[in-house]
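User: Please predict structures.

Assistant: First:
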Amino acid sequence: MDFDGEGSYDHGGVLICLIDSIGEKKFLEAVKLMNQEEKNHLKAYLSVGMEYGQKSFSYDDIKNYQKYYPLIAEQLGELR
């Protein structure tokens, strides 16, 4: 998962829609073998997806995605 430029905004928005559609647990099953670099990309896509995607989030929510996606945040090492 590595997209640069404007495409990353689109992919981030789709990522948010996908997670909301299938749920965090199923999403985590699909990405459980990611290495640290891929996890860092995923964090960035979550952020831009929340900011520019179809679903509306406040600025504070975007910076604290853990509130909406706690299982993903835990898997990405954001919550312990």
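Second:
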Amino acid sequence: MNTVAAILSAAEIATVSQLLGRVHASFKDDLKDDKLNGYFSDLAVRADGLIVAIKKSTAPLNMDEADSKRDTTIRNFFTVVEASLVSLVDGEAEEGKKVLEIMNKYGRKITGEKLLTESAHIESMLKDLSTAEMQSALAKIHCGKEYFAQLTADEEAFKALQVQNNSASQEVSGAKSATVLKKELREFLNSTVLPYINAMTTIDADKYSRFSAEISREVRSANENARKALNAAKALAETPKFKS
């Protein structure tokens, strides 16, 4: 029986572990093997732990995406307000000057600040723009109120994600990384689960051969798919890039 290849990613190892668990579940009643049941219970716990670790490792990326979204809104907000200065609509230019004076206290440069500093400045700017006078001015600027509302929503979403990530970090403080859990799960499969299935198939082929064949098929398929993905990535990286 093939072993689980080292080229599999953490997500792929977690997935194949779950697939093997489903195969075992379909044969469990026929095999009646308590030791094997214990191995697969352990496998399920390890796979679930790896999946949680993978999700935690994506948190910084999600923060960057949320920050990028609010940065785009800030730039567009400035553009809309600046455009109002040349508006021919009665009163819009005058109101635009009032709003822009407030926004220029912070400037577009806040999009390049550290995350927490940017949040503080965004919240301060939104507070300054929340007065009755500024809300009235924004209402006279084309899309002014809409961009104010959008930036408010983007900042709230960013803060909520920050709280969520901080809470998750505290929960997994000292926990193993996805890389470590992936290695341990692969070793558990290759040194414990699969060798036991091989041994039992040799001892009692009539009882274990179909189960063993299904397990082997899933492992082989996972290895082949990972290898194809790796080769495709290499081919893409080696493809000459021509300037248009």
